[in-house]
Amino acid sequence: MMHQYFLYDKNVFFTEGMKTVLCDFIDQQSAISCSDSFSQLVNVLEDVNNDKHINWILCDLDSLPSDRFTVLSTLKKHYQERHKKLVILLNKSSLPFFFALYSLLPNANWLLKSESIKSITTFFKELLNSKQENNCFSDTLTRYIRKELRNNNADRIISSDELWLIEEIFKGKSLSQIAHEVSVDVRRLSLIKRHLMRKLKIENNIALFNAFKVLIAPSP
User: What is the CATH architecture of 158-212?
Assistant: First the structure.
């Protein structure tokens, strides 16, 4: 079966490097396309697959638009379709948020962009040979997950609910406004926010913004 690769990333240097790595081991019938256009990414996701090829969609987290939860929900809706495989590309700055991201996209595959060429090649070879239901994680990311679990750092893991609330706050909304929009008691949202700030040892909103700005892009 033919494989088609689509790489969404705004970093042209990484894109060219990834194309070189992929071309070294994929067969000649496979096609590779790249774009920094989110609309083109959506078109690829929404394309009705005809079972004649497998679509590999490589998506850089940092290149996504600012409304991350809506975007990630779009990814989740489409990548689970037959013959569509999603690989999320992460920078090291996103590691503290990995478990929250994984809870949103539990069937995706995860590659840390700072991996060596050897590790990236190994990752894709394992991915191509893995069973459909298996997830693949790059070497450094695997070590990070094991370390966090081994050190019992579950109390520092950021949940998807906490990440969602922070994104809504980043849009300039008050807790009361958010509570009204989603029909949730504002006291529950306040509790989530206070718990998160204690978890991260953060005392004010400025520090909270600085902690999350590497992941949640500010709205234009």
Answer: Orthogonal Bundle (1.10)
For domain 2-150, give the fold: Rossmann fold (3.40.50)
Q: What is the largest CA-CA distance in the chain?
A: 58
Question: What are 9-14's contacts with CB under 8 Å, separation 24+?
Answer: 9/34, 9/36, 9/58, 9/59, 9/60, 9/63, 9/89, 10/36, 10/60, 10/62, 10/63, 11/60, 11/63, 12/36, 14/60, 14/113
Phi and psi, residue 57, nearest 5°: -110, 110
The answer to whether residue 185 scores a pLDDT higher than 70 is yes
32 - beta bridge partners?
5
H helix count then E strand count, the chain: 10, 5
Global pTM value: 0.78
- Residues in Cβ contact with 203 at an 8 Å cutoff, skipping those fewer than 6 apart: 197
* pLDDT tens-digit map of 3-17: 888 999 999 999 999
- 3-class secondary-structure state, position 180: helix
Q: Where are the domains of the chain?
A: 2-150, 158-212
What would the two tokens of residue 88 be?
């999320």
Angle, CA of 175, 38 and 72, to the nearest 5°: 45
Instruction: Give 24-72 as a 3 state SS string.
Output: CCCCCCCEEEEECCHHHHHHHHHCCCCCCEEEEEEEEHHHCCCCHHHHH
